[in-house]
């Protein structure tokens, strides 16, 4: 797993650990980039360039529209494409060709029968002018139905578009067991965000803290998904790396 493991830059120390230990880096400093002033943007770019310098295994977490659920549900396809294009340009400037985007399905606001064909068309349009080496991963955010996510990816019908299964989001935002999410979406998962919580809130707890049986979940990923699946730890990396070592997913060594 070591060669397929990434650390998230929510903790700025994680980048140095990743480079020292041979892990990849998922740059998430642009998640809330929408609306940032030009001077702030330049400072952010310079800081991120330094964070990832010397690492050639990179993911970019795309910018989100915001946190207001009603606004997210009402966002037009053109608004979403514009924001995703902004993330593509930024990622490209860093030499990153793997980008994670949140799904914009909002239970209680989105109508599934309207949202699904609209989202299929949106992603097909978005990818129509993108290079062959771009890989996009649609992440379950508030989504509560793995079958719908699988259908979305299947009908987009583009080998460059896969799913990013977020274990914490699946746990706190749906009533479907995470191992069943993996089974339902196994043909389309290319990346995973791994963290734990109490089932009620997206706390991003370390792998060993919470209600999720992460050992079972990781074994299910490894048995159901092709061997090139990648993982990003979206939690305290030191505690999570200790847990991975203790449970046989990483060699026992000092990673920090």
UniProtKB/TrEMBL annotation:
Signal peptide: none annotated. Residues 81-224 form the Xylose isomerase-like TIM barrel domain. InterPro entries: IolE/XylAMocC-like, Xyl_isomerase-like_sf, Xyl_isomerase-like_TIM-brl. GO terms for molecular function: isomerase activity. SUPFAM superfamilies: Xylose isomerase-like (SSF51658). The keyword Isomerase applies. Keywords: Isomerase. This is Sugar phosphate isomerase/epimerase.
